[in-house]
Design goal:
The chain is an alpha/beta fold. Among the domains are: 67 residues; 106 residues, no CATH class. Helix content is 34%, strand content 21%. It is built from twelve helices and twelve strands. The strands form two sheets. Strands 6-7-8-3-9-10-12-11 form an eight-stranded mixed sheet, sandwiched between helices. A hairpin with a 2-residue loop joins strand 9 and strand 10. The longest helix has 22 residues. The chain is globular. The relative contact order is 0.14. It binds adenosine-5'-triphosphate. The site of adenosine-5'-triphosphate has 16 residues, from strand 1, strand 2 and helix 2.
C-alpha cells in the first residue's frame, strides 16, 4: 500500500523479535507491559505498531534500544539484529549484550530512535550545529571541519533551506516541525540501518505532519532504511506502513500487511480501532468508541485480555488465552473466533459501515500518494 512513499522492500528480516516479555517493578507489584511479542522487520520496509495508550508499544521499542530504565526487567525473549555491516551474517541477540555494548555498538549507531517530543532529545542550551556535530563525532572519526560540513549536509538532507543560518540557532528559536527535522538529522548522523519513530508527528499540525512523514519516507528510500513506526493514528499507518502489528495489553493480537489489516481485519479489537478513527464526514450517530478500559497489567489476566470489552466474546475468551491463528502467509490473528468450532458472527452494522468508510479513505490516501 505504501510503495509510493517507501519503495518496495526485499523480504530478508533485519530485526526479528521473538517471545519478548517485559515487566516493570512498580509500587503495586510487577506490571507486565509486554507479554510474549513476536514480529519481524523486513529490510527496507516499514512496520507500524498500533494500539491504544498503555498497550506496550513504547516499552517494546525502548527495550530494543536498551532504554527500558532501572525498573524494567526482561522476562523472556530474543531480539535478533541482522547487521548488514557485519563481516559474518550471524544475527546478534541484543538482549545478550551488556547495556554498555548495546549503547556503544548498536543503539544510536545501527538503530536510531526519534520521539514525539523533539525537546526530549535536543539540548536547549546548545546550538543546533554543535548538537549535530557532537552526534557525528560520537560515531565517526572526522575532524572539526569535515564534521561541520557533514552537519550542514544533514541539515539540507532533512529539508532545511537556510542550513548555515539554522546551524547557529538554538532549539527554542525553531518551530515544532523544524525541531523534529533536526532530531531526524541527529538520528541520521550515525548512518543507522533501522529508524524507530515513536509517535514522531503526534504533536505537529496535519500539514507539518504530512511533510515529516514524506521526509522520513524519502530518507528511507535513499538510504534503504528499515523503519518501525509506533503510533495510534491509522492516518499515519495508511500513509507509511508495509506491515502492521496491532497491540493490545502487551500482546500483538493481529499482524499482517497493510492491505490485510485495512481490508480484511479479523480481530474484534482491530475492527473496533479502525471504526474509532475520527472522520469529518461521519455524523455523530455513526461514531464508534470501544466500551470499557484496557486491563490493569499488574493483575493476572485470564483468557483473552480484550474479552471484557468485546461484544463478540465467547465463553472460552474469559477462560483461555487464544493461540495465534495463521490466516495466510502474511496474516495472523490471536482470537478464538478463528477456531473451527467458533460461531460465525455478523459484524455490528455501525462497525461494518465505519470499516467501509475507513477503507474508502485509505484507498483515497493511497491514490493521492501515487500522484
Ligand atoms: N518505567 C515504567 N515504570 C512502570 N510502568 C511503566 C514504565 N514504562 C511503561 N510502563 C507501563 O507499561 C505499560 C505500557 O506502557 P507503554 O508506554 O509501552 O504504552 P504505549 O502503548 O507506548 O502507550 P503510549 O502511547 O501512551 O505511550 C503501561 O501500563 C505503562 O504505565
Amino acid at each position: 500500500m505504501s510503495d509510493a512513499l517507501t519503495g518496495s522492500s526485499d523480504s530478508q528480516p533485519i530485526l526479528s523479535v521473538s517471545n519478548l516479555a517485559v515487566s516493570f517493578r512498580t509500587a503495586r507489584g510487577l506490571l507486565r507491559a509486554v507479554r510474549g511479542v513476536d514480529f519481524e522487520l523486513k529490510r527496507g520496509s516499514t512496520l507500524a505498531i498500533v494500539g491504544e495508550s498503555g498497550s506496550g508499544k513504547s516499552a517494546t521499542a525502548r527495550t530494543i534500544m536498551g532504554l527500558g530504565g532501572s525498573q524494567q526487567q526482561i522476562d523472556s525473549g530474543h531480539i535478533y539484529f541482522h547487521n548488514t555491516d557485519a563481516a559474518d551474517d550471524q544475527p546478534i541477540d541484543l538482549l545478550t549484550l551488556s547495556r554498555k555494548k548495546l549503547i556503544s555498538d548498536i543503539c544510536g549507531q545501527k538503530i536510531a530512535m526519534i520521539f514525539q517530543d523533539p525537546m526530549s532529545t535536543l539540548n536547549p542550551t546548545m546550538s543546533i550545529g554543535r548538537q549535530i556535530v557532537e552526534a557525528i563525532r560520537k560515531h565517526q572519526r572526522l575532524n572539526r571541519k569535515a564534521s561541520r560540513e557533514l552537519a550542514l549536509q544533514l541539515l539540507e538532507e532533512v529539508g532545511i533551506r537556510q542550513a548555515a543560518h539554522t546551524y547557529k540557532q538554538y532549539p527554542h528559536q525553531l518551530s515544532g516541525g523544524m525541531r523534529q527535522r533536526i532530531v531526524i538529522a541527529i538520528a541520521l548522523a550515525c548512518n543507522p540501518q533501522i529508524l524507530i519513530c515513536d509517535e514522531p508527528t503526534t504533536a505537529l499540525d496535519v500539514t507539518i505532519q504530512a511533510r515529516i512523514l514524506e521526509l522520513i519516507a524519502r530518507i528511507q528510500r535513499e538510504k534503504n532504511l528499515s523503519v518501525i513506526y509506533i503510533t495510534h493514528d491509522f492516518g499515519v499507518v495508511a500513509r507509511v506502513a508495509d506491515e502492521v502489528a496491532i497491540m493490545y495489553a502487551g500482546q500483538l493480537v493481529e499482524k499482517g500487511t497493510a492491505d490485510d489489516i485495512f481490508y480484511h481485519p479479523v480481530h474484534p479489537y482491530t475492527c473496533a480501532l479502525l471504526s474509532c478513527v475520527p472522520d469529518a464526514g461521519i455524523d455523530s450517530n455513526h461514531l464508534y468508541s470501544i466500551p470499557g478500559i484496557p486491563p490493569d497489567l499488574v493483575q493476572p489476566i485470564s483468557g483473552d485480555a480484550f474479552a471484557p470489552r468485546n461484544e463478540y466474546a465467547l465463553n472460552i475468551d474469559f477462560e483461555q488465552e487464544p493461540p495465534e491463528y495463521r490466516i495466510s502467509d502474511t496474516h495472523t490473528v490471536r482470537s478464538w473466533l478463528l477456531h473451527e468450532e467458533a460461531p460465525k458472527l455478523d459484524v455490528h452494522p455501525i462497525l461494518a459501515q465505519r470499516l467501509r468508510q475507513m477503507q474508502a479513505r485509505v484507498m483515497d490516501t493511497s491514490t493521492h500518494q501515487q500522484v
